[in-house]
Amino acid sequence: MTPDPATLRLHAGRPPSPSPVSNAFAFGWRAILKFKHVPEQLFDLVMTPILFTLLFVFIFGGALAGSTDGYAQYLVPGILVQTVMFNTVYSGMVLSTDLQKGLFDRFRSLPIWQLSPFAGLAVGDVLRHVIAGAIILVIGMLLGFRPEGGIPGVIAAFVLLVAIGFGVGWFFLVIGMVIRAPSTVMTLGFTFLFPVVFASNIMVDPATMPGWLKAVVLANPVTWMTTAMRGIFAGTAGVGQVLLALALPVALMATLAPLTLWLYRRQ
Predict the structure, then answer these.
(1) For 72-82, what is each residue's pLDDT tens digit?
(2) Among 2, 86, 90, 186, whose CB has the most other CB atoms within 10 angstroms?
């Protein structure tokens, strides 16, 4: 059967479907534009790392390390991990906000790669992690922190930070898919993160803790991440340390990324 000429002309004039890569970049650009059009989010992103770093160094520095310089050398890598962990909550909040506004219903009706909106969220996360990490590093160096691993160590540390944030972020994307109230996502996120982050070696050496608490801290994945971060900055990290630091992020991504997509399709 010969196709209708009008149908042939219609299909001939139709532009080709965009590739998944171009879809991902389009939504990534959307995430970048959010920083321009919603500058208020930069306040938390900038001020929180500065306050945490200054307060902990000057309040605990003398008591725990004898000087602010010595404590900055111990604390800054841990504060970087802490900040990235806290930033991952914003992934779930942004997703919950978009779902609440009905944006994902519009995205679902478009002829695009289904994971494109999540790729855009990932770009926004990377920007937040890099900006906050750079601020903490500058403040830390002003307070006496010195990355003995040099520029390669700094670059490797930031790569690890982004990987940690990307992997842990999937946990809060699932929460954002299930809970449609952004404020509830934030409350649940920080309620979960506070004991996990503070029961680690970010601020205090586990050797000074009671035996039962030391065992909990040493088994905490945040401790593994912080130990690897300190080793990378010092230029002494081994492959085993880095792999241990990536264990939780990789496991979360492998298990929760398919779950997130399933929830997205189901809704």
Answers:
(1) 899 999 999 99
(2) 90
What tokens were used for 72? 């900055």
CA distances from 108 to 19, 199, 257, 267 (A): 16, 41, 17, 10
Separation in Å, CA 67 to CA 144, 145, 201, 226: 10, 12, 18, 21
28: Cβ contacts below 8 Å, ≥ 6 apart = 119, 120, 122, 123
- Torsions phi, psi of 145, nearest 5? -70, 135
pLDDT tens digits, 156-178: 999 999 999 999 999 998 998 88
| pTM (predicted TM-score) | 0.85
DSSP 164-227: HHHHHHHHHHHHHHH---HHHHHHHHHHHHHHHHHSSSSSS-GGGS-HHHHHHHHT-HHHHHHH
pLDDT tens by residue, 166-215? 999 999 989 988 887 888 988 998 899 999 999 999 988 898 889 899 99
Closest CA to 88 of 42, 114, 121, 55: 121
pLDDT tens digit sequence for 102-122: 777 777 777 777 777 777 777
